[in-house]
Amino acid sequence: MLAEAPIPDERLRLIFVCCHPALAPESRAALSLKVVCGLSTARLARAFLVGEGAMLQRITRAKAKIAGAGVPFEIPARAAWPERLGAVLATLEIAFAQVYEDAALAGDAADFATEVLRLSGLLAELVPDDPEVLALAALVRFAEARRPARLDDDGAMVPVSDQDVRQWDAAMIAQGARLLDRAAGLKKTGPYQMLAAIHGAHLSRRETGETPWAVIVALYDGLLAMRPGAVTAVNRAVAVGAAQGPAAGLAALAAAPADLRLQGWLPWQAARAWLCEQAGDAEAARAALDAALALTPPPAERLFLEGARRRLG
After folding, report:
1. Is residue 119 a contact partner of residue 137, using CB atoms and an 8 Å limit?
2. How many angstroms separate the first and last alpha carbons of the chain?
């Protein structure tokens, strides 16, 4: 049931406006991120793993649809929120992903960290009975809770499995846990709940001292069944490598959707570098790290990759 309240925030109102159901599903979030968040076409193309030309066409078609079909660019009534909610959540997810990939908050999307934290919490208040809304708010809090531990003393990015759990924000973790518990109580599982559960599994190391990699692989299996995609497959491959060994991880990475664009995606090259290093293939690991460094990573990630490259000689 939707809360009987208007949308009290200008940016969230604009996101709902841009996520009009008359637009193609793949265009709604892209248009929102372009118009409301001001992401460049090049950044959008990287976020959606498509070519820049294809993204420009997607945005152009969406604008033409609005102009040609007379799509009303207006704030939807509460009864129309459900048909837009999926695209609204995708917009917030992708906006947050842009800042999450920059551990030092050194890029032009740095403000999205606090903004998505705020907007996801507001949306959870406005739509308190939608488990996916609650789960997105939970996963953003789980991820942000780890931010104090994401940089080492030299400013290099620290992978989640190596972070000092004493630096994690306990209060924010508790907020996320309450939201995820509420989502689970609604007994309708979706991809955002799986993503939040993956973040929660990493956070369990704070209590147990160990990362439950087998549980994380199982959660990624569930997520892949609900929302297949290259990003999920690559992240799963890293978890498989940690749980079952680098050979299994490399096999899982090779089984990711065949797409040459993945080779221009920094996390794919970083995952391959780590798995190859663990497998003892230093030459392949060096090649993957060189490819990752050529993709202009943010400063903290560059320092991390350069450190791994020096370690390999």
Report:
1. no
2. 58
Tally the domains of the chain: 2
Question: What pLDDT does residue 111 have?
Answer: 86
d(CA 109, CA 38): 9
Note whether residue 87 is domain-resident. no
Answering whether pTM is above 0.90, one says yes
Residue 21 belongs to a domain with what CATH number? 1.10.10.10
Q: Quick one: which of 72, 182, 60 has its CA closest to 130?
A: 182
Tell me how far CA of residue 65 lies from CA of 31, 60, 286, in angstroms: 12, 9, 47
In a domain, 252, yes or no: yes
pLDDT for the residue 96: 93
**H or E segment at 15?**
helix 10-18
Could you say which residues of the chain have pLDDT below 50? 1-4
Specify burial of residue 201 (Cβ count, 10 A radius: 0-12, 13-18, 19+).
buried
Nearest to 91 by CA among 30, 140, 134: 30
What pLDDT, on a 0 to 100 scale, did the predictor assign at position 260? 56
- The pLDDT of residue 2 is 44
Q: Give me the DSSP letters along 50-83.
A: S-HHHHHHHHHHHHHHHHHHT---SPPPGGGSHH
Q: What is the domain range of residue 67?
A: 11-73
